Fold this sequence. Notes:
With 76 residues, this protein is of the alpha+beta class. It is 18% helix and 36% strand. The two termini are 29 Å apart.
Amino acid sequence: MALVTGFEPKELAHASAQKPVEASYSSIEIDGERFFQIDTYGSAERQMVGKRSQSIRLNRQAAEQLISLLKQEFNL
């Protein structure tokens, strides 16, 4: 599990296509602080299909920054 509190730009040395996977999200509160969590699940070729692969949890500051970045990058 990773708690993201902010984003910094970084150029990728090599970008490649990725296989699509399922994802889910949750909104949770811990000690009065709200978090948004995204979980991804293994591809159909994975040994344990349906098992959670990664979890990324964002605090409010990171969520606001991500919204701003998405609007900018996708011209939303």
